[in-house]
Amino acid sequence: MDKFYNEILYKLETTISELEIEADYSIQRIELVIQLIVECLSDVKEYVLKKGFKNTDEEIHFFKHQKPVIVAKLIYYNAIYKIETKKPYGAKPIRKYLNKELKKLKRFFDNNLDFYKYYRTNNSYLDEKLFVRRKHDIKPKAIFYPPTLGSVLHIPYIMTIKMN
User: Fold this and answer.
1) Residue from 98, 102, 104, 110 nearest 141 by CA
2) DSSP assignment of 44-76, as one string?
3) By the 8 A CB rule, do 148 and 40 touch?
4) Model pTM?
5) pLDDT one-digit tens code per residue, 94-139
6) Residue 65 predicted with pLDDT over 90
7) 121 burial class (0-12, 13-18, 19+ CB within 10 angstroms)?
8) Between the chain's N and C termini, which has fewer beta carbons within 10 Å?
9) DSSP per residue over the chain, as a string?
């Protein structure tokens, strides 16, 4: 799994870097990057469905450390896309809009503070409940599942991990 993951992540990051050489964040380029990330996640999903995990530790490692790196890129570029497409005109309206978006992010972090503390302190006592598919019995307060990812690669806190 590690070899496949490292190869696909390197390919994704290289392609994104090549696209970002220009300073301009055009909406079309952001859409292209989002499409590349979704395709990458689809390839990862296909690999997991085909090969599975050797054991629970490998599954936990994937959902706790590897998949969040890719999902973080999706969250980041989706946020940029949303900001760019909804951004009003004029300095004051833009400032007001961006402050409103920052408040939403703060609220998300505040709602998931317990999980952040767990994750950032490298705890592992809840890993089997949080990072193993279909074995969780802890209900997160705020879950976001991008519809393009399908249910096979979902665990409740995967989106929360890389929102930090």
Assistant:
1) 110
2) HHHHHHHH--SSHHHHHHIIIIIHHHHHHHHHH
3) no
4) 0.77
5) 999 999 989 988 998 899 898 888 988 999 999 998 899 875 555 5
6) yes
7) exposed
8) C
9) -HHHHHHHHHHHHHHHHHHTTSS---HHHHHHHHHHHHHHHHHHHHHHHHH--SSHHHHHHIIIIIHHHHHHHHHHHHHHHHHHHHPPSSHHHHHHHHHHHHHHHHHHHHHTHHHHHHHHTT--TTHHHHSSTT------SS----GGG-STT--TTHHHHTT-
Name residue 50's amino acid: K
The one-letter code for the residue type at 98 is L
Q: For residue 156, what are its two tokens?
A: 């409740």
Residues 94 and 88: beta-carbon distance below 8 Å? yes
Q: Which of 42, 85, 68, 90 has its CA nearest to residue 159? A: 68
Residue 17, token pair as written in the block = 């870097």
Tokens at residue 54, please? 């050797």
Total domains in the chain come to 1
Residue type, 102: L
